[in-house]
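User: My collaborator sent over this chain with a note saying "see what the structure looks like." That's all I know about it. Can you take a look?
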Amino acid sequence: MSAVVDTTPFYKRLAFNLVSLSILGVILYLGQGILIPLFFAILLSVLLLPAKSFFRRMKINRIFSILIPMFFSLLVIFTIVYFLSRQVSDFLDDYDKIQERLNGLYWSLQHWVKSEFGVTITKQNQVIHDTGQKMDAADIVGRTFVSLTSILSYVVFLPIYTFLILYYKDLIKQFLIAAFHNSYEANVREILYESRAISQRYIVGLVTDLGIVCAMYAAGFLILGIKYALFLALVAAMLNLLPYIGMIIANLFCMLITLVSSENLSDVFWVAVIILVGHLIDNNFLMPRIVGSKVKINALVTLLGVLVGGAVCGVPGMFLSVPALAVLKVIFDRVDSLKPYGLLLGGEIIDPSGKPAMSVEKIKSA
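Assistant: Without extra context I'll predict from the sequence alone. Here is the result:
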């Protein structure tokens, strides 16, 4: 059978792809309350699929083969959430001391601004007062309500979505294969298999990397005697999962908490050093060996993906951006009309003959 040649002009195909991406972005933005828990449930179900298959081979009932790994995974998730909530509670218990510390720092900062820039304390207080007046209390309450509603949607929908995806896995697979023409069945099967394999290896690698980085940060903070050491280590390790910008956010957050909770200002400097050193070790030694080259996405696309994911779906969108880009690359590489986009997402430079000329890793070491 001769191959079908797509004669559609390039500009029409480009316009169609751009319009499709725009519609997809609008759908994600408007339906994120439903879709984001669904995407996390897909990742969780992919991660639990080997456990489900193991229990099925042990002749365990189909429903219980799903419920057992789900129970343990959700137990781990809620344990982490409980630990974080306890740490936050301990932090709030010291509110009076922290408030006193903040007042002292605020007083020192005001006098520094006065001496360096000649702005009187009265003028500074007026600016702060005017800024506070512009904040709409109703807007703050509305945002808080939306945040609580979002958390509730995760608690309710995540286990339900995960169970149903695992229960109807074969049906969903049959639908995706049947939705395309018979000539594309092999491609669809290959895309499904490779997407599942990449997602599994990537998530397992990230969880392993998270544990090691958290242990490194915790050891450093405990040696220094930093208050809330375990809490800061876990938060910094989780933020470190965000490519490129995660380390900056983690550093600022941990430095700020240390600043208001420690009497020794040098602790702030050492916290920044620990996070920076841990990030360098993670990026140059741990991540390449644990996660490896399973997600071959170049740095520019990764950074843009994280920023776009954050703009469209907030912090959850940032965490979902990298596995989403990896799955998209698998699809692009298997569809002839989308292969240029797969090339753009990849981490290799292609020479005119169509062969990889030099990988990003080789360029860095050149």
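A starting point for your reply to your collaborator: The radius of gyration is 25 Å.
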